[in-house]
Amino acid sequence: MRTSKWLLWVALAFLGVGLLFVAGWVPVGRAVGAYVTLPVGTVLLGMALIWRLLEGQEEGAAPAEAGPTGNPGEAAPPKKHGGCGCGCGH
């Protein structure tokens, strides 16, 4: 499983449990440390969204750096025409 998907599910779980605690639907009693679940969920959600954004940029940049066969380590073939790139041959 991709890390961003795993992180997203953990964040949603923390957010859900945190909302249950803060809304008072689940009594916390003297375990006031349970209230930390809501802020932890929001931080993890932000991290998951940033991770997904970076994964998308990473996947989008990979084909541009690859050679003609798709291997990133392979160099592009030399050009047949001149140095200007217009095809005039000088």
Descriptive notes:
The protein is mainly alpha-helical. It has one domain. The protein is 56% helix and 0% strand. The protein has helices at 3-23, 37-65. Helix 1 runs antiparallel to helix 2. The N and C termini lie far apart (53 Å). The mean pLDDT is 81.
Ends distance: 53 Å
Average pLDDT number: 81
Tertiary shape: rod-shaped
Helix content: 55-70%
Q: Counting H and I runs of at least 4 residues, what is the number of helices?
A: 2
Write a brief caption for the model.
The protein has 90 residues and is mainly alpha-helical. It contains 2 helices and no strands. The model has no long low-confidence stretch (mean pLDDT 81).
Give the SSE map.
Layout: H1 3-23, H2 37-65
Helix pairs in contact: 1-2
Key phrases:
single chain, 90 residues, mainly alpha, 2 helices, 0% strand
